[in-house]
Amino acid sequence: MKSNIRLATVFLVVLVLFLIGATPKEIGQSDSTAPWFIAASFMTWVVFLGYILFVSRKQNDLQKQIDEIRRSAPERKQ
Amino acid sequence: MIRSNIFLVAICSILIIMSNYLVLLWVPTDSVLGLSQKIFYLHVPQGMLGLGGITIVMIGSVGYLWRREDYWDKLAYAAAEIGAVFITAALVTGILWSKAVWGVWWTWAPQQTLTLILWFIYVAYLMVRAYSPTPSHGSRYGAILGIIGFVDAPIVYMAAKWWRDVHPEAVVGPLSESDSLDRSMYTVFLVSLISYGVLFAYLLVERYKLLRLNTVLEEIRYDEE
Amino acid sequence: MKIKRPSILAIVTKDVLVEIRSKEVVTPVIVFSSLVIVLCDFVFDPGVDSSHVASGVLWVALTFGGILGFGRLFGMERENGTFTGLVLAPVGREILLCGKIISGFLFITLVEIVMLPVFSLLFDLPIFLPWLWVIVLVTTAGFSIIGTIFSIITVHGRAREVMLPILFFPVAIPVIICAVQATQIVLSGGSWNQVDHLIGLIVAFDVVFLGLGISMAGFLLGE
Description:
Order of helices and strands of chain C: HHHHHHHHH
Number of helices of chain B: 6
Helix content of chain B: over 70%
Strand content of chain B: under 5%
Shape of chain C: globular
Structural class of chain C: mainly alpha
Number of strands of chain C: 0
Oligomer: heterotrimer
Largest sheet of chain B: none
Helix content of chain C: over 70%
Distance between the termini of chain B: 30 Å
Largest interface: A-B, 39 and 46 residues
């Protein structure tokens, strides 16, 4: 369950590093086309992070169901 | 189980960070297209894995119809979701790539058309699973659609290619998708593909486990009733 | 024990008889397709070279009309409670599927026989061209095959009226692309050489999906 949050954190860290590290270096060179690449990278992360959040929500729902079953039928734990 | 997750997450994270470093700071920038050419390292692996996704859906669908074992069905369903995500990313980056390189948002190139149709096939699969009257109907009909979608993909590509021959692109870019790559660019492309591939595998494993857990919970609830 | 040809004929005869009495498929689809053509006439300005727009208009009308028709094919069975009886019939699932495909093909061909003169009238284009009818018939066969398969898939689910087009269009796109192109070429006076590869792809599509449908008929119509 927590691995999704870990992965999301990694993505966010990479995104921030990218924003800090890459933009000043590249903007000096060409580049009216730099915004396209930044937009593409950003949208990629948005799509994948969005899906990870979606899966995390499903995991939380399932966890709640598991807890509910554990509460309602404790004898099953034997 | 948790240990294997951490392992996969770690590998995935390292590969993604590495591929980002290579794309941003190591590989040379194209002199004509500038930084926008680097969208290639995002877009093409996403598209290829989207195609890989429909292949896994087909394998899971055939396996389910043949063996009637639950894990084939769950594999197909998980692969359809992850494939849909990758195809969505490929569509979005493809649109941005198209605008940056060719100056138009959409060119109806065969690959672009195939990506769009594949997206609709994925969505149709997920909707069939969601709107079926019972889960077993959803599994069966989803499997049929998975096979049909896979078989349809090359036919769509061929039809779109012939249609394209009649309606050529308004603007022909200096870098087509089939140009030969510089060695360093090829290396970075491979690293990017592998890192996205590991991400695909990780997401597939997670989603598959969730679907299996959901089924187990449904069975427990059913037993309780 | 099971003789294949009479069983298929029995299914087709049953569908034709029901249609003659109820008129739930062909008549509404003709009216709907005519309306689509008229609407497209307003929306698109045909101009001097109407064959360019006309072929697209024709296939939009036939595609949308066809979807309505295929939806009714099994929709009627479900509404009248005869779907279970159909599935329980002592014939192979492949026979059932082929019978329904043939029924759908017949109905939509009937629609086309009425629609093409209307289309010719509104767009001032010739329709008594043999290759045009070849294109129309092979495309209708393709529509019938996938329309029937997806009609079975969507007939019991929720939002069935919307689900059928959502399933149908992505898979039918190659057939529609080829049909529109081939029709445009034929209406502009093109020869067989220019359309043979397009018709070939449509026929290949028909054969592949008929084969797939027959091999999966048990899963489609089982349980």
